Amino acid sequence: MGCQSVVAAGTASVTPAGDVSVQGESAALQNLGRAVQSPDARSANLPTRNAPPIQPTFILPDMGDPGGDTLSRMDEKKYGEMIMRQIRPDPDYSNDLPIYDFLNQMERRLLQAAKKLQLGGANEQGSGAYNFEVFAVKDSSINAFALPGGFIGFHTGLLVSAESDSEVASVMGHETGHVLQRHLARQMDKQTTNTMIALAGILLGALAASRNPGAASGLMQGGQAVAVNNQLSYSRDAEREADRIGFQILAASGYDVNGAPGFFQRLQKATGIMDNGVPAYVRTHPLTTDRIADMQDRARNEPNRNVSTAVEFYFIKARARMEQSGSSSGMYDLKNTFESLSKQANPGKQMEGYYGLALIAQKQGRIDQAVGYLAQARNLANSASAPGSPIIRQSLSLDITSSELALAKGKNEEALQIAQATLKAFPQSYAAGAAMMNAYLKLGRTKDAITWLKARTRAQPNEVVWWTLLSNAYDQSKNVAMRHYALGEKYALEGAWPAAIEQLKIARASGAADFYQGSSIDARLREMQKQYREELKEQGKDIPS
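Now predict its structure.
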């Protein structure tokens, strides 16, 4: 999918100079409390509060004090995964796999550079290593945020507003800097873990408010009235450190080092023209003139190099617009936007326009029209990628959409061949793997699908998409026990423990499992029940008998 302070995409007021004090381990909680009460820190989407305006005074944690109670890496990962189990089922969590692939391919590239630079935490091995995962949130605001344990979220609005993949990478590098330097863990001691557990609920409440302020008002009461935009900002020292680390990573990974100052300059200018005030990202990551000047100085000291933008970036922008479009009226406006983009002189904007029109036609079931628009987008990409062109060719999105359209036209074998070729070119792609599975199932090749998905769930057991597809494959093959088992794993990853446990009980009671499968289901059922009890205990909730 920014540098939010602690966790979910948020906004806190910029602290005026002179109002900063440093205290010990409770600083993070005091900051959070002040952010909750600050009218400037609220999301523009939330219902109005008739509270007198107050000027917050942020208390920043002493970053120099390591503290014996600082969260361990294991704790960070545990709480991050707990929060993600609550975020994944939310309607505003983006399941768009090409966007997911784009963000995570970029993060892998940045991390590879961080490892070569020997940056702190990047080469951590074993149980202490972060499993970085970047995901998108369907929200038009310009924001990004870090969760405990290496999870990073990007609002679709940030992807849409960026003008190059280097700008997106500059934000991701900055967020990665916060994670590697453990800024969150250094602010949160073990006494504040309940606050982190509550962060998922806070994030979800804010997203609900953006969809329906009236329905969401019950979720926001008293001290819990924090939303995505009401977050604890990092200290200025943490911001500068993340700037430094992020810049090093960006430069070493081959992106344009001007991405950061360019993007932040545009954000700074936007504060004077936006209807809803300061962009969320600026508030959670206080953007000072000094910081921008420092980024510009760093960029000037790097050797000049012409870094082109990958064509995939323009297609991802189109997909991000689709993700945040919402209603049918939003789709009508979006079609006008794409038509306008397709007529502009800039080839990147033209590609975004035609590809967006293809996506809209696909969604509306006008498959032949979608194929025509997709061909125009591909022709533009091919000419833009000619030798000496300013744009580098690299588009997963075009091929995924081609496979999907072939499937929609009943050309199942062609859809499979496109998906297989795409997966060969992008072996870590989730979108290509899912496209191949959909083609297998359409062709009735359930055995091939099950074999591939069993291997993939063993390699990546925490991915909802593989368990969902495996459940579908078992359903198609009439394997009742294993269908319910796969569904149980999916529900567990979404934090729906009672539903997950129930699915495994149904699987066991079906009598359809062989001895090996039955033993595996029994063992997994005991693990789930234990994990559910531990999570309830962690959250101070009653454990069911």
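Residues 1-69, 213-232 have pLDDT under 50 and may be disordered.
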